[in-house]
Amino acid sequence: MFAHNGFIVVLTLFIALLAAIMPMPLGIDSFRPDWVLVVLLYWAMAIPVRVSVGTAWVMGLLLDILLGSLLGVHAIALMVPVFIAAVNCQKIRNFSVWQQALVVGVLSALQHLLVFWLQFVFLDVVFLPAYLYPVVTTVIIWPWAFLLLRNIRRKFQIK
């Protein structure tokens, strides 16, 4: 992963982890976008051979450790949408950025529902509609994250 400027990919994933744990005011914390998922989905669609399910699993475990959640919950919940994006990368790449944002929204909703379901099975949590608020902000940030990451990929010639 470090050949051909792979360090940049790792750096963007690290920044996404930092954004996922950065403190936010309580009023807007429930709207925190899924930064790790957004960056993983971009790289899984751009370079699916190098960033795919294994990377999602590692990032999910790191996210579990950083958030103090049940180990493996985010790993499983990130693997499924990244797998779907990597398998369908050729189709999704041909969509407009706004259509991609809708696909990312569906994948983000899937990730949140998987996290809820796994926590419900193991920890008996209660579902609240506010649990899906990050899906809206994830859809909103996708076009800008896509453009930023695409510019980074082109500038550093990541293949």
From TrEMBL:
Q: Where is this protein primarily located?
A: membrane
- What Pfam families would the database entry show? MreD
Q: Transmembrane region positions? A: 6-28, 35-59, 65-89, 101-122, 128-149
Which Gene Ontology terms describe the biological processes this protein takes part in? regulation of cell shape
Where would you find this protein in the cell? Cell inner membrane; Cell membrane
Its function? Involved in formation of the rod shape of the cell. May also contribute to regulation of formation of penicillin-binding proteins.
PANTHER family cross-referenced by the UniProt entry:
ROD SHAPE-DETERMINING PROTEIN MRED (PTHR37484)
User: What is the recorded name of this protein?
Assistant: Rod shape-determining protein MreD
Q: Which organism is it from?
A: Thalassotalea agarivorans (Thalassomonas agarivorans)
